[in-house]
Amino acid sequence: MAAPPPALRWALPLLAALAGASGPQSFELPGAAIDNIEVSGGGVLVAGGSCLYELWPELRPRRRVVPAAAGQGCGEPPGMRSNLLLPYEEAGGVGVLLAGWTQKDGTCEVWERPAYRQRLNRSEVVSCLPDGSTAGVVFQLSGAWYLAVAATYSTGDSESRLGCEPSQSDEATVITVRSMDNLESKEELGIIKRKKEPLHFVDALQWGDHLFFPYYRLKVRRAGYVEPPSMAVLRQLRPTEGGLTLQGHVYLDCGCRSLIVSSSLIRRGEQGWWVGVFHHNHGAKAWNTTAVCIFGMEEVKQQACASTHFIVNGKSCEARSIKKLPTLVHSGLVAVYGTLVLNQIVLFLGTDDGQLLKAILNEDMESNCPEVLYEIKEETSVFPKLRLDPVDNNYIYLSSANKVRRIPVANCSRYVSEQECLSAKDPYCGWCSLKQRCTLKESCTHSSSTKGWVNISHAPDEDVRILLSFPAKNQVAVAASRSQLLTACIIKVVTAVEIFYENVVLNSSSCLCNLTSPGTADDDCLVLEASLSSSSWDVTQTFQLKNCSRCIHEGSCASCRWTPVSSATTCQDSCEAAASKGLAAVQRAEHISIRSIEPLWISTLGKSEITVKGENFTRASGIKLVLAGITGCKTDIIKVRTVLNDTQMTFALPPTRKEAKSICIQAAGKKCSPPMTLHYVSLPSCLAITPNTSWVSGGRRITTIGRNFNVVDSVIISDEQRANLTVSRCPGDESEYRYLTPSLSHATEGKVVDLMLRVETTFIPCVKLHYHPDPVFINYQLHTELDPDLELKIYKENDNLNISKSEVEVYLSYLSGAQTKRIWFSVQNITKKPDRSTILCKFKREGTDKIDFSTVKVFVKLGNFEHEVKPTSSHIYLYVLILLPIVVGVIIVAFIVTRYKSKELTRKQSQQLELLEYEIRKEIREGFAELQMDELDVVDSFGTVPFLDYKHFALRTFFPESGGYASIFSEDMPQSRDQTSKDESFNMLHALICNKNFLVTLIHTLEKQKNFSVKDRCLFASFLTIALQTKLVYLTQILEVLTRDLMEQSSNVQPKLLLRRTESVVEKLLTNWMSVCLSGFLRETIGEPFYLLVTTLNQRINKGPVDAITCKALYTLNEDWLLWQVSEFKSVTLNVVFEKVPESEGGDGCQSVAVTVLDCDTVGQAKEKSLQAFLCKNGFPYGLQLDQLGLELVSEEQPRELLDVDGSSEVLEDGIRKLNTIGHYEIANGATIRVFKKKANTRSDVDYSDQHCHLILPDSEANKDVKGAGHKGKQKFKVKEMYLTKLLSTKVAIHSVVEKLFRSIWSLPNNKAPVAIKYFFDFLDAQAESKKITDPDVVHIWKTNSLPLRFWVNILKNPQFVFDIKKTSHIDGCLSVIAQAFMDAFSLAEQTLGKEAPTNKLLYAKDIPLYKKEVKAYYKAIRDLPPLTTSEVEEFLTQESMKHENEFNEKVALLEINRYIVKYYDEIVSKLERERGFEEVQKQLQQVKALFDEKKKCKWH
């Protein structure tokens, strides 16, 4: 037999699977998920795995097409997906397919079918982003074909750019109209651009001569931001041309849901309806998360006129919104397809758990209870596109994961009688008289005959409706709109929680009932449900009666109105306004409150008992549970099963299909409690088990992996010889279940048992568990020569249990006097050899207890199995006794003894070297493991960032080393007797410095004075900034002039040194100006990631030991602060009880907080961590300072106060005391510590000095062994370089936080740079151009010196400038490393680091090249932005000036400036006299001096 052609080999396994598979016809993509699906005239098109598959309607493979963008074949390149499939047919029956791919900047390929000859290939048509949206429609206009495509070409996030986005000028484009001849984007055809917010398009539709694009803004995906989605409408620009223009958009309101996930268009003649699945943007899945809303296309077209999200040239209207009540509410809809069958709208819906639903709407757009057509066994989410079979509309294609299924659109066989078949009102189903069963039309042999197949289309045009009348007092009559003999009649009165069945008298064509139940006395609202049946139809309707009490009770029916409503309506829901008065009186009585309902996850089998917890249960009556599912389905009203007590009661829940329902509890006359979500899920299923073996004694921990384990009642092992064994009675996680295996001691040879899950009374087979005989341990060897350490090797026979070291427990018992003591070993590893396995165990002895090795016994414990291991038998003594008689002569004996001692010495030296090597290996391995596995749990939400207000931020930036000025500038000036004189003097001085020529001359004159130091220059610049705080426009002009002058000074020497240091007034003035202008940007954009970095650093440092004396820590970024002299440590969890502070008025009494400390922490460090834990838990600090509180260990014997130094403190050589630690006090896990307020005269625990130590011991002590000087050379080997990995692990732990901060600094939010940065960079570019500087490096260095070096580094190294926090010296050292890396990113010099380079440089050496590229891109992006106009800059500076009015006492700054003027008055006057045009200025200066001298005489200041 010949081999199949290569082109068809891929289809053979798929065909074989289809031939042998049961269930619906299907097609499975080989190893890839489905990207897109579409139907054409003769089949199905499926895209996935970088390929396109054409299938026959029955899903048999027909052809596979590899697009040009994919290169070699399917699956290449990885990540490529299809986001557009548009088949259409040109004149002459030529089939054309347009396919869009994310590869190569968003490629579109146009093929002629069926040969798939490529007609056109063009890039930059669709979105190239992995999650970017693309929606398109092909339409014909004036004989030509056009493509209208809407896409998310750019997300506007510069951090996540992939390099495939369009250029900056085109990134705002969202909708384009292109000719199918060349797919080029042209203005005359239509180019629609968005405003700053990116958009996500869901679909593209053509209706009439308009195009419709449903979409939402991308930012609504974030929880907390709510905005309705929109529909954009394009209209034809000119009747005879292909150009389109934006008519506008309109909001689509579907119950405050912000996202659209699927879309469909239904057409009926001139009418059209758009159906959308809307989704809430909050994360938790609830019963009402998704909904289906239907909008009329004509209404959408008329209302769409706004341009809120788009850039338009013409006029637009105010944004309008179309509100629709949901047609159907569900917990997890993801797909919709609507169609018209026999003039009825049918909706096919897909869910996120693999269900295909069918809903049939009536003429009021109300849904019936949706039918489940199909459920995917794997419960994978349905693909958003559902499509009908183009050849046989009785099938629909359901896509999920990598599989497409062909599902029948109806299950008619479920209806067994003609009446049931027709009453279902399913337009697909009808009664086949020949076969006497309900079938599809095509399944009935003589369906062409009118009498052969009967469905709802053969009924009269109008549906059967129920008519109400009131023939007499307290009577209601019910009749059908069609006169026919009735066979059954039911009338119910529906209240909020109860249904009363009334006594019904059935006549031939109507029925009558006497109303006996209340319902209209107070709120005049009544809900009736009536059901009528005849031989050919059933009908049920619900009516709401308003203002009918007089009609019912008195026969006066003029004002009575009755309207059909949905089946779930109650008076409390619909007549709430009318009933509010009556309910108010009822609500004053005791009402129940609900705290919890458990469980909220149950299987579709229902639940025999759920528990409701709350209050006032025994005081309420008529308690019921209201369980409401999908819209259109009946609401279950369940009576309480048992009221256990006032706070607890139980209910039994019925079985139902898989869905999420709303659940609430209601008592008689009360409102239902706030609804919760009850999840009905499918029965659990098992996928894998690890490990899949156990020893017969049991006790092995097993993990089962699967689905829906949270509804399991118990896990059972089925054993043939014994009854079922219950392993666990607790629900598991959703996907994992952990339990211990029971003992099967009777099965000595092992056996295979079945593991089953019990859900209610149903047992579900899970997996098979293999029991093997208990492991056999041969013997052991105990090595004591490593004294004090013990090494134990246990030998075991090989088996199939695959035991891991974490499962083995080993201990040694020995006699000490009359007591038996135990030593627990640490299992190091288990090595397997062909003949046996070896378990290596080690124990580090502490203390002076000696072990009598003659009494030693070794035990191994595995779960429930415990076994004593026998020692290895030794025959060495027998050999020695045999050889002794043979040894002759003193020489031979001496030779043997000497040789023996030599070997013993060599062996001990080898052991010492092995021990030393082991210690080094261990430290390096632990450092490597920590580097790979350690993660820092950074709290995502750290509360409010403690920003300083602007005044304190500015003062700390202006005067970083002069803290005294903060209080001076915050105070008001003392009042003067001569207020007018005071104002005049300051006003004249202010006017003088507002003279640009004078101020520039003044600054240059001061800078030429030798005793005008650098500190004076910085202070003067800061005083000047404060004095001109409200005149930033003028201050900016001064900055420009002084900067130009500085350039002139340095241009002849070295232009690259410009602004590098702070040695002039203008350099400090630039720093202050940046601080003022960037304060808002710093607070809004940089503040949060910067505070997160500081918080993360603190958290990382405190994760490990910190020396209380030197503040050095094991986890740090700076080698100088590395604590490498650290011994082993462990975490201890304390239960810290905080007593109520007497001075505090609020709060409870005592409060318990769980605090995690280290056993090497001092008492003072434990206090700090306790206070921090209290703050994290409560959101506010404890009422006492650190030195005011004490700690007390609570014990049964006697409480003990914990102090850093007390009588029990260890005293080392030279009288140095070691600080007490948690380990010193032997405080165990879970111990209770009480926090109390110390007496006022009690001094601090210890004033640290040279006479104290903590973790870093004196040199003499560091060289000692734990047991004393008798074991010299056995101390733990310590080398600082072994701990350098701690620097790297700290860097890795905070790396994402550091990168987030860096990129928030050098990114452009919304493609817009801060005005100050854009302005000053443009100024520097202009100066370089005017000075003919062609070297780009010079301008780069200027910008780096003016912004990162002058401002950002100052901020990064000083978080206390921005936040209300204290900066420790250790944090300062770490921030210096980060700041150095930040500046290296801006450096143009290439780093050449060797192995001996400083660790502070090596830490970020690999990251710097990437950062440099980002910085260059940042500078380029700023340069490419449109230049700012003068009015824009002045407007910004004016706004900033207005923000800071009255922030500072400007008169203090003027007074300080005047002191400098007075000090150098003669030099200033001399300079003014030499210059022209300063005559008037000299007079003003003299007047100012005279006024201030007069003040000095009067001692005003």
Short description:
By secondary structure, the chain is α+β, with helices and mostly antiparallel strands. The chain is globular. Residues 1-21, 518-522, 572-589, 875-880, 936-941, 972-982 and 1265-1277 have low confidence and may be disordered.
Give the helix/strand layout.
Layout: H1 6-9, H2 12-20, E1 25-28, E2 36-40, E3 43-48, E4 51-55, E5 61-65, E6 82-89, E7 95-101, H3 103-106, E8 107-113, E9 117-122, E10 134-141, E11 144-151, E12 173-179, E13 191-194, E14 199-201, E15 205-207, E16 210-217, E17 230-236, E18 244-253, E19 259-268, E20 271-279, E21 290-296, H4 297-303, E22 310-311, E23 321-323, E24 328-330, E25 333-341, E26 344-351, E27 355-360, E28 371-375, E29 387-388, E30 395-400, E31 403-408, H5 418-423, E32 429-432, E33 437-440, E34 453-454, E35 466-469, E36 475-480, E37 486-494, E38 499-501, E39 504-506, E40 510-514, E41 525-534, E42 538-546, H6 549-554, E43 561-565, H7 571-574, H8 576-587, E44 593-598, E45 601-603, E46 607-615, E47 624-628, E48 636-639, E49 642-645, E50 648-653, E51 659-666, E52 676-681, E53 685-690, E54 693-695, E55 701-707, E56 714-718, E57 725-728, E58 736-740, E59 751-759, E60 762-772, E61 777-783, E62 790-796, E63 809-816, E64 819-832, E65 837-843, E66 857-862, E67 865-869, H9 876-883, H10 890-933, H11 950-958, H12 964-970, H13 979-993, ...
Parallel strand pairs: 18-23, 45-52, 54-60, 68-73, 72-74
Antiparallel strand pairs: 1-31, 2-3, 3-4, 4-5, 6-7, 7-8, 8-9, 10-11, 11-12, 12-13, 13-22, 14-16, 15-16, 16-17, 17-18, 19-20, 20-21, 21-24, 25-26, 26-27, 27-28, 29-30, 30-31, 32-33, 32-34, 35-36, 36-40, 37-38, 37-41, 39-40, 41-42, 42-43, 44-46, 46-50, 47-48, 47-51, 49-50, 51-52, 53-55, 55-58, ...
Helix pairs in contact: 10-21, 11-12, 13-32, 14-31, 15-17, 15-30, 16-17, 18-22, 23-24, 24-25, 25-26, 26-28
